[in-house]
Amino acid sequence: QKRTFTRWINLHLEKCEPPIEVEDLFQDIQDGHVLMALLEELSGCKLLHGFKKSSHRIFRLNNIAKVLSFLEERNVKLVSIDAADVADGNASIILGLIWNIILFFQASAATREHNKAIKKLLQWVQKRTRRFGVAVQDFGKSWASGLAFLAVIKSIDPSLVDLRKALLRTPRENLEEAFRTAHYSLGIPRLLEPEDSDVSVNGPDEQSIITYVSQFLEHFPGLEEVE
Fold it and tell me: Per the database record, which ranges form the Calponin-homology (CH) domain (predicted)?
């Protein structure tokens, strides 16, 4: 999850002038600068003018508080997230914060549903995959074989995927093929690696899969209306 979220953040921060790159999410986020830059890119609002660069904890807390206030004003869900946890590099809190930002600015924007974004995204996926006989019940184990990713790609461009060949490959081979094809043929940034969807490890990380899959709807919004 940390890797997926870091890649997602860097995807947006590379648009900054000059570009910013996050190397260690839990460390680099602690002074608030990365969060302000990210939210500027996502929202179009100016936040960095309020950034105070300092090694003193009080200034870092103040920077992060401004970020949290900005998010609260937009009704971004922030349960049990406070500036001190972010400034201290609390891993679970930071992942929760980034997830809520992704959910609001990407998944909700792509589905145009703020309260039911995940449900709407799943319905969109099911509509695209069922025509190829691929059942998707969730954003977890349904994706472990790689067939769901390939079916979504095929629904966008049928020439890119041969599902009969996919049935003869291993899940890892299918996942690699899906991520590679989506990146090079559809322009979908590669946020995932095969091991991120490997059910034999800890099970697929649902939030990482949602983050990745919502990119398809974001890149091809016209498909939402087409059956």
Answer: 1-106, 115-221
> What burial class does residue 156 get, using C-beta atoms within 10 Å of its C-beta: 0-12 exposed, 13-18 middle, 19+ buried?
middle
CA pair distance 186, 217, nearest whole angstrom: 12
Residue 182, burial from CB neighbour count under 10 angstroms (0-12, 13-18, 19+): buried
Within 8 A by CB and 6+ apart from 37, the residues are 13, 16, 20, 47, 48
**pLDDT band with cut points at 50, 70 and 90 for residue 226:** very low
Q: Map out the domains of the chain with their CATH numbers.
A: 1-108 (1.10.418.10), 114-223 (1.10.418.10)
CB 22 within 8 A of CB 28: yes
Cis geometry, peptide bond prior to residue 221 (ω within 30 degrees of 0) = no
By CB neighbour count within 10 A (0-12 exposed, 13-18 middle, 19+ buried), where does 193 fall? middle
pTM above 0.90? no
Q: Tokens representing 220?
A: 């091809």
